[in-house]
């Protein structure tokens, strides 16, 4: 009869960090005065727990800001992107 070894699995939830039960949406505040010409990159985030989140990286200082998804030019941009 062979000896059986212990099988161990690495912890999926490290003990040193508390597990948060609430997810925070990346955008809590929106910028509405961002010109399209000042944007280097747009990131569109959609999660089940958050409304549509649009994060823009600015050309001038590479700062990331959240843009109001209700802005007319954002709506037009999304419509064109979805119809491609």
From TrEMBL:
GO biological process: defense response; immune response
UniProt keywords, alphabetically: Chemotaxis, Cytokine, Disulfide bond, Growth factor, Secreted, Signal
Annotated Chemokine interleukin-8-like domain residues: 22-81
Main location: secreted
UniProt xrefs under InterPro entries: Chemokine_b/g/d (IPR039809), Chemokine_IL8-like_dom (IPR001811), CXC_Chemokine_domain (IPR033899), Interleukin_8-like_sf (IPR036048)
One Gene Ontology cellular component annotation held by this UniProt entry: extracellular space
Signal sequence coordinates: none
Molecular functions per Gene Ontology: chemokine activity; growth factor activity
Xref: CDD domains: Chemokine_CXC (cd00273)
Subcellular location: Secreted
PANTHER family: SMALL INDUCIBLE CYTOKINE A (PTHR12015), STROMAL CELL-DERIVED FACTOR 1 (PTHR12015:SF193)
Family in the record: Belongs to the intercrine alpha (chemokine CxC) family.
The protein, known as: Stromal cell-derived factor 1
Originating organism: Zosterops lateralis melanops
Upper taxonomic lineage: Eukaryota, Metazoa, Chordata, Craniata, Vertebrata
